[in-house]
Automatic annotation (TrEMBL):
Domain of life: Bacteria
Keyword Transmembrane: yes
Name this polypeptide is given: Putative branched-chain amino acid permease
Organism: Corynebacterium kroppenstedtii (strain DSM 44385 / JCM 11950 / CIP 105744 / CCUG 35717)
Gene transcribed to yield this protein: azlD
Xref: InterPro entries: Brnchd-chn_aa_trnsp_AzlD
Lineage, opening ranks: Bacteria, Bacillati, Actinomycetota, Actinomycetes, Mycobacteriales
Length: 121
């Protein structure tokens, strides 16, 4: 039985050799490992930093607010206006005031928002 590939050897496009592909994959692997290992020598110096402590307190709330505003603005133009956003935010706040659970607030608020967008709006 004769099996011929539509492309070059090993399923690679014409003009691309297996040795070049393997060389590129090795370089990509080394760069990936190096970039992931790069921050670790600096961790000891940053542990006592006041700036890093400040960022660890403020960034989660800041990132969450950016995501909320972005999502609210993008979906309010396309679907249902502002009312699903405002109801979901109010529902999230009420859930958090009731149970004081960040996890429940996030999942409950998200579920309410998705429900409002897909079923009600």
């Amino acid at each position: 039985m004769n099996h011929t590939l539509a492309y070059g050897d090993y399923g690679l496009p014409e003009g691309v050799s297996l040795s070049h592909t393997l060389a590129m994959l090795c370089v990509i692997g080394v760069v990936t490992v190096a970039l992931r290992a790069f921050p670790f020598p600096f961790i000891a110096r940053l542990r006592g930093s006041d700036f890093v402590a400040h960022l660890s307190r403020t960034m989660p709330v800041g990132v969450t607010m950016v995501l909320i505003v972005y999502t609210a603005v993008e979906t309010s133009h396309d679907r249902g206006g502002w009312w699903p956003v405002l109801v979901a935010i109010a529902g999230t706040c009420l859930l958090h005031a009731w149970r004081h659970s960040v996890t429940l607030s996030i999942f409950g608020g998200t579920a309410l928002y998705v429900l409002l967008l897909n079923v009600v709006a």
